[in-house]
Design goal:
- The complex is a heterodimer of chains A (about 475) and B (about 325).
- Chain A contains 15 helices and 21 strands.
- Chain A is an alpha/beta fold and about 475 residues long.
- In chain A, strands 14-16-15-18-19-20-21 form a 7-stranded mixed sheet, sandwiched between helices. In chain A, strands 8-9-11-10-17 form a 5-stranded mixed sheet, sandwiched between helices. Chain A has a 3-stranded antiparallel sheet with strand order 1-2-13, with no helix packed on it.
- In chain A, strand 5 and strand 6 (about 95) form a beta hairpin.
- In chain A, helix 4 packs parallel to helix 6 (about 135-145) and helix 13 packs across helix 14.
- Chain B is globular and about 70 Å long.
- In chain B, strands 4-1-5-6-10-9-11 form a 7-stranded mixed sheet, with helices on both faces. Chain B has a two-stranded antiparallel ribbon with strand order 2-3. In chain B, strands 7-8 form a two-stranded antiparallel ribbon.
- Chain B is α/β, with parallel strands linked by helices.
- Classes of the chains: A alpha/beta (about 475), B alpha/beta (about 325).
- At the A-B interface, strand 2, helix 1, helix 4, helix 6 and strand 13 of A face strand 2, strand 3, strand 4, helix 4 and helix 6 of B.
- Strand 13 (about 275-280) of chain A pairs parallel with strand 4 (about 85-90) of chain B.
Chain lengths: ~475, ~325
């Protein structure tokens, strides 16, 4: 094959022409030729982009409730021959997509690392949940630092594995992996799941970011709930990603990258198949810190790149792009705010007018979409003028709650507000977060605003009743 | 008519992909193995090497000055000469390698990769492949991954300080099992065969021509090739400098780690196995890890008083190990 060596300092060399991605693009068999409306569940919505991207040649997986259908959808579509090309004489048809079944989630994570490192122009993904994600931990934590932004691990949130086992959705798994190094985004509803998937590789693979992504949605409540999904045509989905990646080429690093040679652009490192390069080397502590500095800078670039990608998405598709926060009831400067995430936020938004009327207080709802890197500045700006904040945690935590700590950190030093924070646990293990619970939490938060301090360190709320909590000292 | 060079000599003329910069112990067998792999992969195909965490990995792939991999001092002009090397966690090398080969095959199927199929090699320690990584090792074979798997067997977790490994022959001293234990080594060859490997071999680079043949065949295997490389560890076994290759050969000749070669569906063989095998004490007495059982006295191996049962047990293991492998080679 005719190739041209191109030095990519300091990573080694890339051999242009060794991998002809144009041939892969040409081999893609579009699954959706025009904008299509379809009733699907969350797992299907998360699978469809992998069918549409020409870059997604290999998907890998191992079944686990409630994520299994993601894998089944892909396997069925590929087996049906939708991606078969012409057969070689006497041979099987060439296939532009393949589903790989591994023997465990750990192997799946290893496998996606291999595909992603082999060819950095591909998008490779899997979906898992709970202990499946935990079983991937060793490899996922490596991936988080790898610079392989073409990896997508869809986490279908599920509670604990045992003591007791609970297969319903709460984000314990996702929040246990906050420091793995992935960009973590929470979705709710099929359209948000699909749209988020369509946008994430444009962020993760951006040369300034080069960080794997972990889109997530709650098991059962969103994985198994059907809704109407607008599916964009394959050519538009692919053009969106291709253009986003082209616009990122040659982007300057966010901060001085100790790895980049002086005056160099910020290149995507070579892949293993089309490059002469080494990946995953050992380092001593002195050098390790430099690698971590670069990793942190890439992660931080997410905020800026996400804004660019979201704007491009809105311009092309006419729907809201991926933003770090959803703010509801913030147009008239809310007096109190409830900070939450996941599908139960939809209930709160639906009840917003009623809660305001019941309490006689302007209530705002801040729904967190981007969990890592946490949008601290955006949240601090949004909450700067409220009198009290209620944070709704859906996952068990030894203290006041994962989300509460993030909100506290966001406000500390970034906002002038001294607004008290009431911390709630509600919906653990996928339990219902009912209208009565939302009303109770809004009322307690309003009381904190009136008194100028929180009433308790944390409260566990179920069906509008406070069933547990810890008093202040 | 000119006769083709034997594989061993042909390889000697090729460009090596393993060079200076490594920090392997002086006298380590792995360096010899790596040079053989480095030359064997100069075969007109792109090469990707996947290294599971192991002493071989940490000693050859350290940033910024200790990367010993690469053909030539600069990146070669031709992609076929180039080397992509990746380290991933202990047990993962076969699976990562499988993914890379699958990617190349899929790209080739749609015309996006037009070169010959790449050499994709995985390198694991015996701990990485046969202890923590037995699952991934067996399942990669079971899926018929089109890769060449190399497993370095030094009977210890050398990377982490010479702890017990399930490949250890009985009663060898280990930091986590002082004096060793009575368990016999895991049947790694049998496991690879029953999992469905297309080619299974065990050979030390101490048998240099045979080793070159085996590596060459592994790289040409259409399905999964598994090569176990018994590898004397000078730091862990504590033997006299200069004995590395000789101990590798003795491990084979005594029957403890005999050379073995078998292609799926064909009878195999135990090459280089002498009709009259030397007793295991010849091998044990030259390693300090067995110093509690045996010693050299005026250059002759002796059994320490009272330790005859342990030495007899090791000899018995060597005897039935040979018989067992001969049985495996029949089918």
């Amino acid at each position: 094959m005719a190739t041209l060596r191109r030095l990519v300092s300091p990573y080694g060399a890339t051999y242009d022409g060794a991998v002809d991605l144009g041939a892969l693009r040409a081999a893609h068999r579009p699954r959706y030729l025009e904008r299509t409306r379809k009733a699907v569940d969350g797992n299907t919505a998360a699978a469809i982009p992998f069918l549409q991207w020409w870059r997604s040649a290999i998907m890998a997986g191992f079944p686990i409730t409630p994520a299994t259908k993601w894998l089944e959808v892909l396997a069925r579509e590929v087996a049906a021959g939708h991606f078969d090309g012409p057969a070689a004489p006497g041979g099987l048809p060439s296939r532009s997509k393949r589903v790989k079944l591994l023997e465990s989630e750990h192997a799946v994570a290893d496998y996606v690392a291999g595909v992603a490192a082999a060819c950095r122009g591909l998008v490779v993904g899997t979906a898992t949940s709970s202990v499946g994600l935990d079983h991937m931990t060793e490899s996922v934590r490596s991936l988080g630092a790898s610079g392989l932004g073409n990896v997508i691990v869809v986490d279908v949130c599920r509670a604990t594995a045992n003591y007791p086992l609970c297969i319903e959705g709460d984000p314990s798994d996702l929040l246990g992996h906050r420091d793995d190094g992935f960009i973590q985004v929470m979705c709710r509803g099929v359209q948000q799941i699909y749209d988020t998937l369509v946008q994430l590789p444009a962020i993760g693979m951006h040369p300034r970011v080069l960080t794997p992504t972990m889109p997530s949605y709650y098991g059962i409540k969103d994985s198994h709930r059907s809704g109407t999904l607008v599916i964009e045509p394959d050519d538009q989905v692919n053009a969106f990603l291709d253009e986003a990646l082209r616009s990122g080429e040659g982007a300057a690093p966010v901060v001085e990258d100790f790895l980049a040679a002086e005056g160099a652009e910020h290149p995507t490192p070579p892949g293993l198949l089309d490059g002469d390069t080494a990946l995953g080397n050992c380092v001593t502590g002195d050098w390790f810190q430099g690698f971590k500095l670069a990793q942190k800078a890439r992660m931080a670039a997410t905020h800026e790149v996400m804004a660019e990608v979201a704007s491009a998405f809105e311009a092309r598709f006419g729907r809201p792009g991926l933003r770090p926060l959803e703010l509801h009831g913030f147009d008239d400067q809310p007096e109190i705010a409830l900070v939450c995430m996941g599908p139960d936020a939809g209930t709160a938004i639906h009840l917003l007018t009623r809660m305001r009327a019941e309490l006689g207080v302007r209530v705002g709802i801040a729904v967190v979409r981007l969990l890592t890197p946490f949008p601290a500045r955006a949240l601090a700006a949004a909450l700067e003028h409220v009198a009290a904040i209620g944070v709704v945690n859906n996952a068990h935590h030894h203290g006041r709650g994962h989300l509460t700590l993030d909100v506290e950190d966001a406000l500390h030093g970034l906002a002038r507000t001294r607004a008290p924070i009431e911390s709630y646990f509600c919906g653990l293990g996928g339990a219902d977060v009912s209208a009565a619970s939302w009303s109770h939490m809004a009322r307690i938060t309003a009381d904190a605003g009136t008194h100028g301090h929180a009433g308790r360190r944390w409260r566990l709320v179920h069906e509008g009743i406070e069933v547990g909590g810890e008093d202040l000292p | 008519m000119t006769r083709p060079l034997p594989v061993f000599k042909d390889m000697a003329l090729r460009d090596d992909a393993f060079g200076e910069g490594h920090t392997l112990c002086p006298g380590c067998e792995e360096a010899v193995t790596f040079h053989a792999l480095g030359r064997a992969t100069d075969n007109g195909r792109k090469t990707v090497l996947v290294m599971g965490t192991s002493c071989g990995e940490v000693s050859t792939l350290a940033y910024p000055t200790g990367v010993a991999w690469g053909r030539g001092r600069e990146e070669p002009e031709e992609v076929e000469k180039s080397l992509g090397v990746i380290h991933h966690v202990f047990e993962s090398a076969p699976t990562v390698a499988e993914a890379i080969r699958d990617t190349a095959d899929l790209l080739a199927g749609v015309g996006a990769w037009t070169g010959p199929p790449p050499n994709v090699l995985s390198w694991s320690g015996d701990g990485g492949a046969l202890a923590i990584g037995l699952r991934s090792f067996l399942h990669a074979i079971h899926r018929r991954a089109r890769i060449a798997m190399f497993v370095n067997i030094n009977e210890l977790f050398a990377n982490t300080g010479f702890q017990y490994s399930p490949t250890a022959i009985p009663f060898g001293d280990a930091s986590t099992m002082p004096g060793g234990g009575s368990a016999e080594p895991i049947d790694h060859i049998g496991l690879a065969l029953v999992a469905g490997a297309g080619f299974v071999a065990q050979v030390s680079p101490g048998f240099a021509p045979l080793f070159a043949e085996v590596v060459d065949e592994a790289l040409r295997c259409e399905t999964t090739a598994v090569v176990f490389v018994p590898s004397p560890c000078i730091a862990g076994w504590k033997f006299t400098e200069g004995m590395t290759a000789e101990l590798g050969r003795l491990a084979s000749k005594t029957g403890l780690f005999p050379c073995f070669r078998k292609r799926a569906g064909q009878p195999g063989e135990l090459p280089q196995l002498p009709r009259n095998r030397p007793p295991v004490i010849e091998y044990l007495a030259r390693q300090q890890r067995f110093g509690h059982l045996v010693a050299l006295e005026d250059g002759r191996p002796i059994i320490r008083p009272g330790r005859e049962p342990e030495v007899a047990a090791i000899q018995a293991y060597a005897d039935h190990n040979v018989a067992r492998l001969q049985q495996l080679a029949l089918f």
